[in-house]
From TrEMBL:
Gene3D superfamilies: 3.40.630.30. Keywords: Acyltransferase, Transferase. It comes from Rubroshorea leprosula. Residues 7-185 form the N-acetyltransferase domain. Belongs to the acetyltransferase family. GO terms for molecular function: acyltransferase activity, transferring groups other than amino-acyl groups. Pfam families: Acetyltransf_1. This is N-acetyltransferase domain-containing protein.
Length: 406
């Protein structure tokens, strides 16, 4: 294809673009020979991974003369915490020792694709620039994206051509769903919170966490959110004696932990391709043994070589010396929920320095130690306020990963 092709970028039209989008997605899914590659099935909805955000958009690129689609990009905007401050105003902050969140409007780029036969023509850059134009028009101060550290083409495009900076490197932790249920310690009680109780707890304890969404209530009440679960030492509370988040937070136990579960299975499915026959046979054997002898509680490799669903754990946090052990119990509970839903894996993403990380079970072979988040400030006319330029801020201990953008 000659370099003189004129490329037009326009709004995605679901009434006529579905088959073309799927074709581009298929052409982009080219794994390395002999290497396992992960592919995504969007279940016929190209916007599914941003659809639940407050505002979203999808753009496509096509050759003007032939109307052949050669690229696409998705984006969304929301308001999140970018820092914290102390207020001397007793009305807005009754407890002056407790910091208040500083919010900013941020945009997220997801699912940039350019057909392999049309790369190195500036199409990716043009799609990003058009999406950033929409971000600015909607008042976003920052734009960010997640990409693999070893996706050199993507990293080069965003850091060298689009002006993004390397920002955070959270860990993606993936644990298989076994054929047997996981045992939860009898020293732990797990309570399911109502969305209102969950919102109160999150806003009180985690609203100053980086990337915490201001519309956390919309996240928790979404149909894809399967619930928020609180782990406490046995004997502290039961489901019947639960007093509500307000009283709980006024006199919490020495240790506690919380997390929420998001049902990605209803949004998209994944599939591992490129496995050898030996690996497939070995994985199948572990599942057979696990299913026939569940009392042995052997770790088995689930069926990931066909489309499988996942549950995503978000809002993970806790306090106290036993918090990591309570997180482990919550992860076992989440595993058992995923088993009931016939999911293949349970996934979470946490800051690389997250202290509760040691309580999260995961397989190294399926996980990513350092996911790369890149960020860009969209305009210099914004006030620095009490945070300054967020792109230059040091990483915090924890991070809030919005399940709507998984």
């Amino acid at each position: 294809m000659g370099e003189e092709c004129e490329i037009m970028v326009r709004e995605f039209d679901p009434s006529k673009d579905l088959s073309s989008v799927e074709d581009v997605e298929r052409r982009c899914e080219v794994g390395s020979s002999g290497k396992l590659s992960l592919f995504t099935d969007l279940l016929g909805d190209p916007i599914c991974r941003v659809r639940h955000s407050p505002a979203f958009r999808m753009l496509v690129a096509e050759i003007s003369s032939t109307k052949e689609m050669v690229g696409m990009i998705r984006g969304c905007t929301k308001v999140v915490t970018c820092g914290k401050k102390h207020s001397r105003n007793g009305k807005s902050n009754p407890d002056p020792t407790k910091p208040l969140p500083v919010y900013t409007k941020i945009a997220y780029i997801l699912g940039l694709r350019v057909s392999p036969s049309h790369r190195r023509m500036g199409i990716g850059l043009k799609l990003v620039q058009r999406m950033e134009q929409w971000f600015r028009e909607n008042g976003a101060e920052y734009s960010y994206l997640a990409t693999e550290n070893d996706n050199y083409a993507s990293v080069k495009l965003f850091t060298e051509k689009c002006g993004y900076s390397r920002f955070r490197t959270p860990s993606i932790l993936v644990n298989p769903v076994f054929a047997h249920r996981l045992t939860i310690s009898d020293r732990v009680t797990i309570l399911k919170l109502t969305p209102n109780d969950a919102e109160s707890l999150y806003r009180c304890r985690f609203s100053t966490t980086e990337f915490f969404p201001r519309d956390i209530d919309s996240v928790l009440s979404n149909r894809l959110s399967l619930g928020t679960f609180l782990a406490v030492p046995r004997g502290t509370y039961t489901q019947d004696s639960w007093p509500g988040s307000g009283k709980f937070l006024s006199n919490p136990p020495e240790s506690w932990a919380v997390l929420s579960v998001w049902n990605c299975k209803e949004v998209f499915k994944l599939e591992l391709k490129g496995a050898s026959r030996f690996k497939r046979t070995l994985a199948k054997t572990t599942r057979i043994v696990d299913k026939m002898l569940p009392f042995l509680r052997l770790p088995s490799f689930p069926e990931l070589f066909r489309p499988f669903g996942l549950h995503f754990l978000y809002g993970l946090g806790g306090e106290g010396p036993r918090a990591a052990n309570l997180v482990k119990a919550l992860c076992a509970h989440a595993h058992n929920l995923a088993k009931q839903s016939r999911c293949g894996v349970v996934v979470t993403e946490v800051a690389s320095r997250e202290p509760l990380k040691r309580g999260i079970p995961y397989w190294n072979s399926l996980s990513c130690a350092e996911d790369l988040w890149c960020i860009k400030r969209l305009g210099e006319e914004y006030s620095d306020g009490s945070v300054g330029d967020w792109t230059k801020s040091p990483p915090g201990v924890s991070i809030f990963v919005d399940p709507r953008e998984v």
